[in-house]
Amino acid sequence: MxxxxxxxxxxxxxxxxxxxxxxxxxxxxxxxxxxxxPAAVVATVLDVLVSMRDRAAAGxxxxxxxxxxxxGLVDATAGVALWSVNVGWRDVPLRALVEERVGLPTALSNxxxxxxxxxxxxxxxxxxLFVPIGTGIASAHVVGGSVVTGASGAAGxxxxxxxxxxxxxxxxxxxxxxxxEASASAVEARYREVAGDAVTAAEVARLAGEGDPVxxxxxxxxxxxxxxxxxxxxxxxxxxxxxxxGGLAQAGDTLFTPLRAALGARSSFLPAPxxxxxxxxxxxxxxxxxxxxxxxx
Amino acid sequence: MxxxxxxxxxxxxxxxxxxxxxxxxxxxxxxxxxxxxPAAVVATVLDVLVSMRDRAAAGxxxxxxxxxxxxGLVDATAGVALWSVNVGWRDVPLRALVEERVGLPTALSNxxxxxxxxxxxxxxxxxxLFVPIGTGIASAHVVGGSVVTGASGAAGxxxxxxxxxxxxxxxxxxxxxxxxEASASAVEARYREVAGDAVTAAEVARLAGEGDPVxxxxxxxxxxxxxxxxxxxxxxxxxxxxxxxGGLAQAGDTLFTPLRAALGARSSFLPAPxxxxxxxxxxxxxxxxxxxxxxxx
Lengths: 297, 297
Description:
Chain A is an alpha/beta fold. Chain A has helices at 38-58, 94-102, 111-123, 178-182, 184-195, 201-209, 213-237, 253-267, 284-294; strands at residues 2-8, 12-18, 24-31, 63-70, 73-75, 80-84, 89-92, 106-110, 127-132, 140-143, 146-147, 241-245, 274-277.
């Protein structure tokens, strides 16, 4: 028994054939090509799935289900991709499209939630807040193997928890959201403002780790904002483990050492969740999509 | 079939006999007398329960279970009151003590969580964030008739979500917690600082409603802080309804009209939960205790 998994990102589409034990037997990547418009992106997803299905069948392993992780707001129950700024689509009945074209039962999920499922599985904890920090910041709270979805399916907007009143302007139009203060994009914008140079967040982290005072100042502000956001989340939902992923987590100890200290300083009588780096990197979404597919068969 | 319900507060103990339809057939109040120490408070709870049990039995209605709501951290599964600043106890095996003395199966809960269960039931919604605002601020997220407890049983500390970095000092030792900025105590402290007078939060609300500029200034700051805290909670957990209770909710439209406007101004693409006043006043905890007791039989 194998399943097909696809994680559609703004830049690349990751896909994998996963066997009955959960092992990846084949994996690939394709450009998303979102500049071609949402219809072309949907066509690419369908083509990739058909090609994987046929390739697997030719190898003697007939896939039994599809798991598909996509960015933005998703109605997992209806199987509809409601909205994504990244891909530019609205109300695409992806599950029906895949099931018709590929002929296999299909699970559709938001990419952060799929990634959270996979990271929670790896973490071994039953209560995990997964927080990918990249261009934006989102979260998925996985309790007992399921993602907490919220009443309108919109839970997990940790990036829009307010941490700095009157602070930096967020893409959502408000000010001081965690995403505006502490995403990888915010690191880059902050550094550009004080140093004048356009460098990547990874480079700012490297410079901060080497003791560059300007980079260290930016990094310190970002870590404090992150600790405020994670501290507020911990107070409200009390996760056992916070798994931090996304591009910013690549900074390793440069991020995790001061972040743990800053969160520890805030914990007082409140629960102090363990903070760990994500284990699956940018493959978390694809692994999660496979988990969702395997749950169908 | 009737049950006994007790809600132990820092000042008074509310108790009720509740029949099979959920109707209160008898209710009473006693002073908590916490100045006598935790052992005396426990003795009062036990005495009240025995007295209610015997009174009910004499009236021909033999109670079948006990529901007990208490302040502070509770291990509901173990039936132990872990910690309460208000009562001054630690690790009291309340369920075992009640079951031994009263001879009935007993459910133990935190008072805010019990209140949340009762308010959620009344609200008719399946996904309610109950937020009592009094001396402190707490929360209980009720989803599908159960309270979200968190990994260590400590979920719902909305009062310690950070809304004003470097702001007012909180009882927890940190600064800018929602509770330090926007509880009834914070309203009173803020007003005293600017006006010099020690008046109640209810009086500040009344003055603000009448257009007193000093009171209106204090009230406006409090409403903005509350909107930031509730907005962050909405972003993270996406409740359908937020039920605001406690003493501050007694301000009625003086609170709810600007609070709804301030939260609406923050919602952008995020879910905008309905905000309603609590329906049960200070009887929510007792009603919730009765619900928990009825679930045992």
